[in-house]
Amino acid sequence: MKMLTLTRKPANAAGLSERDQRLLWRIAALLLDYPGAPTLAMTDQLIAAAGELPDSVREPLLHILHEFRTADPLQLAVRYVETFDMRRRASLHLTYYAYGDTRKRGMALLRFKHAYRQAGMQLGDNELPDFLPLVLEFAATIDPLQGERLLGEHVPVLELLRLSLADSGSAYASVLTAILATLPPISTADRRRIADLAAQGPPEEEVGMEPFAMDPLMSGGRR
């Protein structure tokens, strides 16, 4: 794991310095990606890194990291797929909640892509730019200001995802709890948006994503 060597700045409202915030995002990005062998091999290192964080965010991360240390790798992989790939209300693609697979989602995806281009970040052929681990990695290692902006704009989605994971008893809910601690508190407007998204669910009709497909530098999905 690439460690961050940043000068500590005054803590934010959640008690996190800039370094702590970016370290948390980096750990969360790895935990929310598919639990392949390279990530599992880093579990002890991730536990040590999480141990440097304040109690408020350290414990939620350690909760799932200890599971990574003791669980069977195949079981972890199966659980990941069942959690995030087979449940529409637990998608890790941030724009999916509001737009499903519609044309409007294509325009929302281009906003992410534009932010990455401005920072000089190139995506792989199989990556959608709203994939939460990718956004977290971008915020942690490339452009923390733009990354925090993208995450902050999707606080209602992140909270809805946390609630969905908590309702299903998933340990991944603790990772969302830690991420939300780095972002602005949930406002009254956010709560209305969360209620709307929860009531409506992602649009089901697949009418195409032509505006996004027009981007010659982007095709396919993250996984």
How large, in whole angstroms, is the Cα Rg?
A: 17 Å
How many strands in all? 0
Shape: globular
Separation of the first and last Cα atoms: 22 Å
Helix fraction by DSSP (H/I, runs of at least 4):
55-70%
What is the N-to-C succession of helices and strands?
HHHHHHHHHHHHH
User: Poorly predicted ranges (pLDDT <50, ≥5 residues)?
Assistant: 2-13, 207-223
Largest sheet report:
none
- What is the CATH class? Mainly Alpha
**Number of DSSP helical runs:** 13
**What is the fold-level CATH name, i.e. the topology?**
TorD-like
- CATH architecture tag: Orthogonal Bundle
* Beta strand %: under 5%
3D architecture notes:
- Mean pLDDT is 85; it is low at 2-13 and 207-223.
- This protein has one domain: TorD-like.
- The radius of gyration is 17 Å and the shape is globular.
- The protein is mostly helical and 223 residues long.
- 61% of the residues lie in helices and 0% in strands.
- Helix 8 (132-141) runs antiparallel to helix 9 and helix 10 crosses helix 12 (188-200).
- It has helices at residues 18-32, 37-41, 43-50, 55-70, 73-85, 96-99, 103-118, 132-141, 144-153, 155-167, 173-180, 188-200, 210-213.
- 36% of the residues are buried.
